[in-house]
Amino acid sequence: MEVRLDDLDRKILAALQRDASQSLDDIARAVGSSKTPVWNRIKKMREAKVIGQQTVILDPQALGFEACFFVLVRTSEHEADWQERFLQALRARPEVMEAHRLAGDIDYILKVRVANARAYDTFYQAMISEVKIFNVTALLSMEEIKSTTVLPV
């Protein structure tokens, strides 16, 4: 279900994406409104699920997660029970930052953050011991050029 947003809603969303820890006064000032209408709009957008959970973005390098792998998974299994086991295995692995089911030759792509290649191998060995996978290709990201959670509202 698409939610109808006006210009003020979009300005509020842009302000929140830049820094969700801002006070309502700061957001209202930035969008040219007053505090109560801003609060009411934020509340409505939360209820409509336009705004999801609020969290903090951590620096993976500062925490020792220096290696980012993009893992391409091909499977010969397409039954519902295999897919459920695979999804459970992915959800149980904190190293998996993102997982996408794809159209085309590759069935899934995973974004995996680990300390180093040895940690990736530990992750890989655990995954293949839990779920039968036809083919796995791991691509090491040499440099993160752009990463954002900001949508172009």
From TrEMBL:
- Give me any GO biological process, just one: regulation of DNA-templated transcription
Q: Which SMART domains match?
A: HTH_ASNC (SM00344)
Record key words, sorted? DNA-binding, Transcription, Transcription regulation
An example GO CC term for this entry is: cytosol
Q: Does the keyword Transcription apply?
A: yes
Which GO MF terms does the UniProt record name?
A: sequence-specific DNA binding
Ranges of residues in domain HTH asnC-type: 5-66
Protein's UniProt name: Transcriptional regulator, AsnC family
- The protein's organism comes out as Candidatus Rhodobacter oscarellae
